[in-house]
């Protein structure tokens, strides 16, 4: 039972990471600033790597992650609707949306770490990924101050 609960926790984090990946991809497509575009694409690729890391852990627990169904498709997306927010390629709005998305991701990761159902062996991975997300947020906040 603990394994199933851990898989559920990891699935939920994958959804958050996929939201971030898509959000950064959208942000890169909606900014005219070449430096920001490059950073956002880097952040999107980093999220993809984090997803793969969690999928590998789910596979080790005995669940296939090849399927598109389940949490990845069913749970709502938390990133702000970039189409409405990014009207006019407003750099400030893009950065604020990214910060909002990072805040949400950080909250979900902190909740996962507080969850007693998460296998102890996976905590270092979650802590490491959380640190990566927090570092990303710090970089985005630095971008905000340059604007």
TrEMBL record:
One family name in Pfam for this protein: DUF2383
Signal peptide extent: none
InterPro entries named in the record: CHP02284 (IPR011971), DUF2383 (IPR019052), Ferritin-like (IPR012347), Ferritin-like_SF (IPR009078), UCP029477 (IPR016920)
Annotated DUF2383 domain residues: 6-114
NCBIfam families in alphabetical order: PA2169 family four-helix-bundle protein
Protein name: PA2169 family four-helix-bundle protein
Source organism (scientific name): Flavobacterium ardleyense
């Amino acid at each position: 039972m603990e394994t199933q609960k851990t898989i559920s926790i990891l699935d939920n984090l994958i959804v958050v990471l996929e939201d971030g990946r898509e959000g950064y991809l959208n942000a890169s497509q909606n900014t005219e600033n070449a430096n920001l575009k490059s950073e956002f694409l880097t952040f999107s690729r980093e999220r993809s790597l984090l997803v793969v890391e969690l999928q590998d852990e789910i596979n080790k627990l005995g669940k296939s992650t090849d399927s598109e169904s389940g949490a990845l498709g069913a749970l709502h997306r938390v990133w702000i609707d970039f189409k409405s927010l990014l009207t006019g390629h407003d750099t400030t709005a893009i950065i604020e949306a990214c910060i909002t998305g990072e805040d949400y991701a950080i909250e979900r990761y902190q909740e996962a770490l507080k969850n007693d159902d998460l296998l102890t062996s996976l905590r270092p991975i979650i802590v490491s990924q959380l640190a990566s997300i927090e570092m990303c947020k710090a970089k985005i906040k630095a971008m905000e101050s340059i604007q």
